[in-house]
Amino acid sequence: MSTKKGYTPALAFDFLTRFYDLTIKITMPENKFRTRLIDQLAPKSGETILEFGYGTAQNLIKIHRQNPSVKLSGLDIDPKVKALAVKNMAKQGFILPIDLYDGKTFPYPDQYFDKVFSSLVFHHLDRDTKALCLKEIYRILKPGGTLTIGDWGKAKSKHMRLAFYLVQIVDGFKTTADNLNGLLPSYMSSAGFKNVTETGFINTQLGSYCYYQAEK
Ligand SMILES: C[S@@+](CC[C@H](N)C(=O)[O-])C[C@H]1O[C@@H](n2cnc3c(N)ncnc32)[C@H](O)[C@@H]1O
């Protein structure tokens, strides 16, 4: 589902964005899926790392609290979610650099980041936007840099397929179908990434949250 603004807010509708943190807490094994994502990212001191689609900054906050020497940044498209991210970071006593962009060109030079990661974002993007964003991620990564994605993927059981209908009803069938059909890895390869792998998954109340890893 895409609004007239050209993007889908965190919970599909603007007026729901302020309930995002609560919704994730209630519907997802939050600590488990974020911890595993960050373990896979393996952030190290001094590394430049971007979260694409930072939402309310929960991943950025978790990483910074674990290791304040990681050079973190975030990129999102929604000013409403940025305001919530700033508020959440301020509560923790720090503000990390987070940016907004126009949905086209990422505001960073070529080969700038050691790592890029993203969680629960690609299922919001239509096919062309998925391809465009992956190309931008590829461009801003250093050679040998890595991309870590966690998002809805192929349902790992009939029960997971049924559960995922709820996400599709809220977020739209069009943008979620490619995730469900397991197409994210092939999009990553088409953007130029090598060694693209699905590294694992967690079955949740809403569907199978899958982990992907790739290298530039
Ligand atoms: C479901 S939230 C995920 C937030 C966070 N990554 C997490 O794990 O909780 C999806 C986020 O993707 C952002 N988003 C949607 N379309 C985008 C786009 N084209 N470029 C960047 N971010 C986008 C939304 O604004 C929202 O913050």
Structural write-up:
This protein starts with 19 loop residues before the first helix and ends with a strand. The mean pLDDT is 95. It has one domain (14-215): 3-Layer(aba) Sandwich (Rossmann fold). A hairpin with a 2-residue loop joins strand 6 (194-204) and strand 7 (207-215). 40% of the residues lie in helices and 25% in strands. The protein contains eight helices and seven strands. It binds S-adenosylmethionine. S-adenosylmethionine (SAM) binds at residues 7-10, 53-55, 58-59, 76-78, 81, 103, 119-121, 124-125, 129.
The helix tally amounts to 8
According to CATH, what is the topology? Rossmann fold
Query: Structural class given helices, strands, pairing?
Result: alpha/beta
Which architecture per CATH? 3-Layer(aba) Sandwich
Helix/strand order, N-terminal first:
HHEHEHEEHEHHHEE
Q: Give the percentage of residues in beta strands.
A: 15-25%
The rounded Rg comes to 16 Å
Helix content: 25-40%
> Any low-confidence stretches, pLDDT <50, length ≥5?
none
Which ligands, by name, code or SMILES, are bound? Answer: S-adenosylmethionine
Distance between the termini: 30 Å
Strand line-up across the major sheet:
3-2-1-4-5-7-6
How many structural domains does the protein architecture include?
1
Quick take:
With 216 residues, the chain is α/β, with parallel strands linked by helices. The protein contains 8 helices and 7 strands; from the N terminus they run H-H-E-H-E-H-E-E-H-E-H-H-H-E-E.
